[in-house]
Fold each of these.
Amino acid sequence: MLALPLMLASCIKDEPLGTECDILSAWVEGEAYAPIFYQSTQMRKDDIASNEHEIVFTVRSLISLPREVPVCFALTEGATISPANGSLQDFTQGPVEYTVTSQDGQWQRHYSIEFREAAMPTYKFSFENVEEKEGINGCIYNVFYEIDSQGTRHDIWASGNEGVTLVHQDMQPADFPTHSIADGYRGKGICLNTQYAGDLGKLFNKPIAAGNLYMGKFNVNNVLFDPLRTTEFGTPIDRVPVRVTGYYKYKPGTDFTNASMDVVPGRTDQAHIYAVFYRNQDADGKNVVLYGDDVLSSQLIVRKAEVASLPPTDEWTRFEMFFEGGEADPAVLGELGYNLTVVFSSSKDGAAFEGAIGSTLYVDEVEVQFENEDE
């Protein structure tokens, strides 16, 4: 069982040495290309998770994008890539497909590399855009995404669903902690429920999986050995948030348990809805993403918002939270120097693997409002 998560770092489970075929990092080579980006740090993508197949570089404008751009890659040991590493490619007509071949030549992974303008979604989330994705062990789960006014897809939402595929088999979307429902407040909605993580999860003192949905990415490589680093919170934002509203229903599970699965008498599970607006570069100019261990405590946080109370209710009930904190630097904002995440969880302490199995949170019609929105 200890070998199970390790297979996620390579392309096929139960692979022998030399079969890995992953892109680890990608970058645009040459300072001459820096002006097409908002920040020079956006020219590079590091720590690419093994579950990522699309790599997107955000640029100021596609009109100014040269017809030939050299993208370089760091690959797993011995792997090769086609088109050639660092070769000039035309990205003005859309994504370019790359194929990584393992050292032994027996395995391949396909990647889509794209340059995209920094268009933003509307930040009015009805959760109508949902698709089914096939994971390992015959599992099929829901993925949520947004479409902007120009019809561009934005994969800003993530959940822990892919991690659940490690410990279960042949699950369908409605069996997962995070899934779509047909009867939301208006149209579709989302259901988040806290579940038993199986014997493998219990073995690692991670016995429950809280339903969660958040703006950011899920890095499946760290599920069992560094779970707080699976959740990479935040996406770049070009405005300053002031308020989040939406609708919810909530029912806590019966027995609250700790990470050892011991029942904690007198304790009732709680849902959690919060948002964080933070600087995405540190003092040294390095890219920053917040994780489960610092998303509410990092010194780079500018503003936070949290719903103070989410009482159990069987009726769709409106919630509201206001951002509190400091001011954003307009110059940094104009360079996409801040990230925003909005987070929903069926168990407030789910990151510590504490909660009640069966706790269920429904959410729909969420809207983020911003400063100077009507100007």
Note: The helical segments are 161-164, 198-203, 330-334.
Amino acid sequence: MHTRTLGQGLEVSALGLGCMGMSQSYGPNPGDRADMIGVLRAAVDRGITFFDTAEVYGPYVNEELVGEALAPVRDQVVLATKFGWRIEDGTSVGLDSRPEQIKKVADASLRRLRTDTIDLFYQHRVDPDVPVEDVAGAVAELVQAGKVRHFGLSEASAATIRRAHAVHPVTALQSEYSLWTRDPESEVLPTLAELGIGFVPFSPLGKGFLTGTVDTTTAFTDGDIRSTIPRFDQDNLTANQALVDHVATIARARNATPGQIALAWLLAQQPWIVPIPGTRRIERLEGNAGSTQVALSADDVADLDAVAARIGVHGDRYNDQHMRLVGK
């Protein structure tokens, strides 16, 4: 797999692996930890070097899983994790990006990840009670101490990105972006291009929708976050199906899968965009990796853009509570 460069010269594989789903959010967790370790190591074997986790995933257990799986190949991979939540009795109860909390989280994450340095440390959500300048300053101190290499933000607005970047260079912004989530295009992507900051889209497959494997007959299991997301209501799924149908048509013409077309569209947007689709299965991992070999023409990209604009997207990407936390 070829590589791409985020901000500040951070080189990673063109496609990363989002690890959250191995510990939460998509129904019952895998029963066999060894299976998930196998998937993580299989990703490295297939050229993926960029792995995304967070203290809040589990909480804590996802970092422990990633740390155990990748310890033997630590020198070959880039580890990204996140801070910014207040976790009490195993549950996230709000935001907390106070500098002292950031430093405490960094030390705990280092232990769980079995490493001396976090390659990319994101603020998971902007904390309205803590100026982002203070957040950037705290991470800068961690960089100076050698505990962190790079600073990132997640779901931040263009204005917040500028304020943070003025204190300490931002290497990457992580936010949701895909054919059916185009929010970053108007302000955030131009800001990243201007400042030389990389972009890491999560949920690049629309939480499975853009793979063509989810429709109105899909029954989500207990604990599946999609059951709480308006876009996955039956009426909205019906309205959104036209986009997936069109993606599937292009996929057939290119001898690819719909998911590969969705990822290839993202990769075609900018050379500093690195999607991080998640999976629990090696066969899906291989399919996603194959997207880096799918060459969409300029006409293909324009066609997908036009269809997405014409169809639009029905339903928010989060429930009301989580929508209030993004774009700050």
Note: The longest helix spans residues 234-253.
